[in-house]
Structures are given as structure tokens and as C-alpha cells.
Amino acid sequence: MLWFSVIASALAPGLALLTYFYLKDRYEQEPLKMVAKVFLLGFLIVVPVMIIQRGFTDGFGGNLYVNSFIISSLVEEFLKWFVLYNIMFHHSEFDEPYDGIVYAVAISLGFATVENVMYAWYSHASIGTMFLRALLPVSGHAMFGVMMGYYLGRARFSKGAASKRYLAYSLVIPWFWHGVYDLILSSMTQYWLWFIIPLMAFLWYGGMGKVTRANNRSPFRFLKREEEINT
Hints:
Helix 7 packs antiparallel against helix 8 (192-216). Helices cover 84% and strands 0% of the residues. The chain has one domain (2-221). The model has no long low-confidence stretch (mean pLDDT 88). The protein is mainly α. It is a multi-pass membrane protein.
């Protein structure tokens, strides 16, 4: 019964956060089937991430900055970005800027959920530990997904140099903040909470601002207003 509670606590944060950001789509919510598909793709990329990270660790591991910014954050964010770009970026369902956030959060939380379940299973974690992980790694992956998705949305509905610039931002910005997050956790043993809590507050504040701005750029915004006026 205790193990069931721990595994449930590992699954719940990712599903709850995905539901939260899905419902934040004000104007044209995505098909649940597509969101579930991308969420499951997050499950699948865990295996290549682990293989690549193991290879990099054997060859280049040992340096905190390399571990944080290359082996951990770059590998994870690049594979999430690569899958999203090749599967969803030109998809017909990606028809408003906020869709980038929905799909990027879905793949990020799919990855984070598997990571969380594996941690709970292999470390025999307590409910208290899983609650802390919900507030930090799972929540962190959601925020990195918001950043990636926001700029993918900007790139999808921009042209020329602006589109390419936003596409680069969609990888570089979540990679950087993910690296900062990992560096704090790996380099500090006593005072890490003094740094990680302000960082998470900053990421959530910026992330929710991006949610609002992405919704405000929806081409369906004015159509919905007209429907509300007519009814």
C-alpha cells in the first residue's frame, strides 16, 4: 500500500501540471489525443537521453559545469526540442502560439514523470521526498517546457530572420535555465534552498507571463469575442 502511494505521488504532479497548462488555453484547446501522444513521446525519449548521458559521463564527466550544462540540461532539452520540432512544429493542430506551450509542457512532463517514477522505485523514496520533487524537478521541467513552447509558438507564427531567432531561443533559453538549476543542486549541499526557491519563483513568474502573452496572440481571440457578443 505504501509503494502504491509513492508511485501515485510520482505520477500525480506531472498529470496535474499538464492538466493545469492544458486548461490555460483560452481560445482553441488542443485535441486530448494529440496532447496524450506528445506526453507519451516524453516517456520514450528517456531511453536515448540515458544512453547519451551515460556516454558523455564516461567521456567528459567530472566537471560540475559540464555535468550541469552539457550532460544534463543540453542533452535533455535538445532531445525534447528535436522531437517537438520534427513532429509538431509544422503540424496542422499547431494553429496558435499557445499550442507550443501545451505540447512542450506535455513532452517535458512526460519525461519528468518517468524520471520521477524511476527515482521513486529505485531510491525507495518517502512521500515527503516525492512532494519535494513535485515542487522542484517536475515543476522545473514544466517551466523549461513553457519557455521552449513559448518561443516555438513565436517561431511558428513569425517569418524570416525573426522565426529563426525565436527557434534558436526555444532551445537556448530552456537549456540555460535548466543548466543553472542543475548547477545549484549539484554544487551546493547546505544553502541550496536559498538559491533554488528564488530561482523557481522567478521561473514561475516569467512562465505565467509567457502563458498570458501567448494566449493574447491567438488568432482565435477576436473570433471568440465576436461569438460571445453575438450570443
